[in-house]
Design a protein that fits this description.
By secondary structure, the protein is mainly beta. It has one domain: Calycin beta-barrel core domain (Lipocalin), CATH 2.40.128. It contains 1 helix and 10 strands. The longest helix has 21 residues.
Length: about 170
């Protein structure tokens, strides 16, 4: 009876370890710079040129730097999120941005949903976006699949390459 109990315990432990090992989540920490050669950008638009990510457990601390190809200006902002779907609101140059983030079902991608409101002479405009962050090429390439809606659906795939690791 003890031998049977020992065998069942060993099988249970092996299954538990293999299930735990399969659920390991990806770490997106690093400083990422847009690969302009691989990315098709619309002309005269502001685009995400750099993103610095520090991931600690289920928290993301980011610095996003947008750039204008019109005047070369850079527009950075900090955004800290948890990966549990909780909504956070920040203001970017007096424009509200509401954001939430979650892990994908397999824990290999991060999905960030956001809404930013631009106030203009023609009225308010909401841009609703969904970003899916995935690491490829052994963690040397960050792929962000961006889907945004301002009335008509627009899908854009943006590629990033890893510049250096965060050291903090």
């Amino acid at each position: 009876m003890n031998k049977k109990h020992l065998v069942l315990t060993a099988i249970f432990l092996m299954l538990s370890i293999s299930l735990f090992a399969g659920k390991k989540k990806v770490n997106f920490s690093g400083k990422w710079v847009l690969d302009k050669e691989k990315t098709e950008l619309a002309e005269n638009q502001i685009f995400l040129a750099k993103i610095s990510i520090k991931q600690v457990g289920d928290s993301l601390f980011t610095v996003r730097t947008y750039e204008s190809d019109y005047d070369g200006g850079q527009y950075p902002f900090d955004e800290d999120l948890t990966l549990d779907g909780k909504e956070y609101e920040i203001y970017i140059y007096n424009m509200p941005r509401t954001t939430s983030a979650n892990w994908s079902k397999k824990g290999k991608s991060i999905i960030i949903n956001s809404k930013i409101t631009f106030y203009g002479d023609q009225g308010d405009v909401d841009i609703i976006s969904m970003e899916t962050l995935t690491l490829e090429k052994k963690g040397t390439l960050l792929l962000i699949n961006l889907k945004s809606k301002t009335g008509d659906e627009e899908t854009e795939v943006i590629l990033y390459f890893k510049k250096e690791e965060c050291t903090e």
